């Protein structure tokens, strides 16, 4: 007897869906935005939304958001404006890929981003992010790719980036970083 595979559709967890909606509400978003597919769920809802119906979202089998890619949707310049909220680090804790490049995001990179310990790709380039690199980036020990070029970041390059022993690619150019590259970064 031959069995046909049953499609496995993951559903966005309610907690993570609410975190994304809270963030979406703070953004200035053009009318034709592709994230209009992020439709809010009713409070106390037992209804789930398939991950495949939300633009830029990929989930694990358990419904945790694994990939968040609103980096101009593979097209350049979504023209969102706003900030990266601290809740990203506490609510999307299973995130592995985080792409927000090519938008108009401003503010600082929240230190809570260091709680995304499953992250292996972080792309925040081509925005207007400012302030210093958060020292908590050193907690992202699975990180392989780090792209934060073409922002307004300042301060010194962190020696804690040397703790990222899986890091293969790092781009921090076109910022206002100063000082020498710490020897630890070569680890």
Write the layout of secondary structure elements.
Layout: E1 11-12, H1 14-26, E2 49-50, E3 57-59, E4 65-69, E5 81-83, H2 87-91, E6 97-99, E7 104-107, E8 121-123, E9 128-132, E10 145-147, E11 152-156, E12 169-171, E13 176-178
Summarize the structure in short:
With 187 residues, the chain is mainly beta. It has two helices and 13 strands.
Notes on the structure:
10% of the residues lie in helices and 24% in strands. It has two helices and 13 strands; from the N terminus they run βαββββαββββββββ. Strands 3-4-6-8-10-12 form a six-stranded mixed β-sheet, with no helix packed on it. The radius of gyration is 18 Å and the shape is globular.
pLDDT < 50 runs, ≥5 residues: 1-9
Number of E strands:
13
Write the element-wise H/E pattern from the N-terminal end onward.
EHEEEEHEEEEEEEE
Shape: globular
End-to-end distance: 54 Å
Number of helices: 2
CATH class equals: Alpha Beta
Pfam families: LRR_1 (PF00560), LRRNT_2 (PF08263)
Subcellular location: Membrane
Protein name: Leucine-rich repeat-containing N-terminal plant-type domain-containing protein
Domain Leucine-rich repeat-containing N-terminal plant-type: 15-60
Please tag this protein with its features:
single chain; 187 residues; mainly beta; Leucine-rich repeat, LRR (right-handed beta-alpha superhelix); six-stranded mixed β-sheet; 2 helices; 24% strand; LRR_dom_sf
